[in-house]
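User: quick one
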Amino acid sequence: MEVGLTAFVIFFAAIFTNNILLTNFLGMCSFLAISREVKSSLGLGLAVIFVMTWTSALNYLVYYYLLVPSNLTQFRYIAFIIVIAAFVQLVEMIIERYSPVLYIVLGVFLPLITVNCAILGVCLFMIIREYSFLSSIAYGAGGGIGWTLAIVAMGGIRQKLAHATIPKPLEGPGITLIIAGLMALAFMGFSGMIQIQ
Amino acid sequence: MAKLTGQAIIIKGLWTDNPVFRQILGICSALAVTNLMLNTLIMGLSLIFVTALSNVTVSVLRNVTPTRIRMMVQTLIIASYVIIVDILLKAYLPDISEALGAYVGLIITNCIIMGRCEAFARHNPVWPSFVDGIASGVGYALVLLAVAFFREAAGFGSIFGVPLIPSEWTRWTIMVMPPGAFFMLGIIIWVVRSIGGKELQKDETTS
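Assistant: Done. Structure below.
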């Protein structure tokens, strides 16, 4: 029961109070590059949720059942990145085979997930914070949903922003970062609820 | 590919093609570790080390790496150097290693390194690749130090842990918290792009 409760709390904390994008700054590159409209943001977000949940589970198993017993924890970076790359490749092949329409919709987003630091970040945080298996999956899923929430909101704001007059040098990444700052401020309002470390 | 002189490569890395404010790469760590100057400095040095050596390695192997698996090879090369950095930090600077936490490991997915390997080292001989790696790394480190300077000064009233601003000054705690990072980096990009003038604004269509 205790384990279930913690996993549940971690799940919500990962979405709101410890949003992987707005408090841990992970996955910023694709956040800045792809958040220009809601549709593409949502497509990438869903793919990230899927990959993040599965790779956090897989990497948990790899770490505790392969690396720890053989005393190779120092090589976790290599192991994690291989698992992530292999998993993304596998997902790409499966989607291409069974749902060509979805494959075309996701397009270049899928391979890009490999270098999304949010995925590796979640895997490293769950090791550092010594989460249980269930908590790790909850953290992965919550982290993915939180990331998607932030990028879709940003996509919506930037769609409206296309009609605004912004100083030339501030256009693009500059204004996006400042809006992200405002979003981070708003999300800090949640922080009274739960804190995870 | 036109031959570039050492000086041209350095200027590109530091200013005209600066990874952070021109190409908007490596933003994650630029935001995460910049609340204290000391952590930022160590992070910058680690990144210079990894970028320079991975560039050299990719360049050495450029003629024997099959194109199809080059991303995998590059990732493995980068990961190996990050492991070295991680072990060194744990051994000699345990406090800072603790403070940087997962962000040392996240150097692997720092797009700057992959970007330099992919855009430069893959096509160029060893020595220019080394210079290019150093220049990009230093360009990154300098922007980070600038961000950290303002954040630490406004948030803690100190520079490198040395208190400089009298304690009557109200601390802007928000500056060392996540929103401050976004604001500061946004403002720095704004200022730098204003100084850079028109010729540099044409390449920002991508983001």
